[in-house]
Write the structure tokens for this entry.
Amino acid sequence: MAITTLQQITHYYDQYRDRELTFTKDIIKTLALDPRQVYVKCNGTQWPCIINSTSFMHAKIIIGTKTEAFAEFAKKTVSPINLRFCFIESDGQPNSFMVPCKVGQIGTYMNSTDLAIVTLNFTQRPSDALIEHTGRLLEANDNSIRRRDESIVINDDTKRRLKLSTEKISVNIQNVPRNSVLRELSFGGAKIVLMGLAQFLTHKGVTLTLDFDEPQETLTVKGIITSAEPVEGRKDIVTATIDFSDEDIPLEYKLHINEFITSVHNRQMNNVEQKELLRRQMEARAKLSAAQANLTK
């Protein structure tokens, strides 16, 4: 995972402050949240709970209605509460922290008489770790829609920055494995070069297998070959354009693409800011020189 600056964390907080993220099985896996180490603490006692969702302003937890925790939270006056999060970082070490809270709404969960969903309102800004982990995922989901077709041409530089192990990838077309070379990637699709006849590849289902480093993982993405064109001078080799099925795009894949695209965008913004600063400096020097020239007249 790339190093996240304080400026990026502040951006995540401002941009997604009220956005609620529900902890599905896929999101728990992608964020490396350890649900076994999530609990609430009150009056020196800690109780296990299920984390249902979070924003940067509040979290929702699920507890049993017959537990001590529920009895405590249902009181008119509740002592200060701390909600414990725990993420497993890329080096395998746990990163746990407490977020001070107060009880908000209490309601039944899924019409169950045995379970309650409790809203815990944060009484201060949560740890940067929570903002970083959830902010990266929220941004990647947003950009996967907004910048879906923004292509990345695969070369040695982009391959390294994407942390892509190799451009030589395996694809599976109608349950037949084939070797191919990756030429472009985007949130929403890819271009590959492979052996085959264009008319027999178009509109066929395809699964790409991509190997990434940092973290080391193999991801599969499903899609449809929307077009195939013969490579110039070779009728048996084609360039195939693939459109990914949105529901089959792994969250980890979105994070890889988002990290690359945002780094390029930030670099471009920095270049623009540096050019603007240089322009202002040159204007200031010109004005100073003009003023000095007038004084000597």
Notes: The chain has two domains: 6-146, 149-297. Helices lie at 6-16, 25-31, 68-73, 128-146, 156-162, 198-201, 251-296.
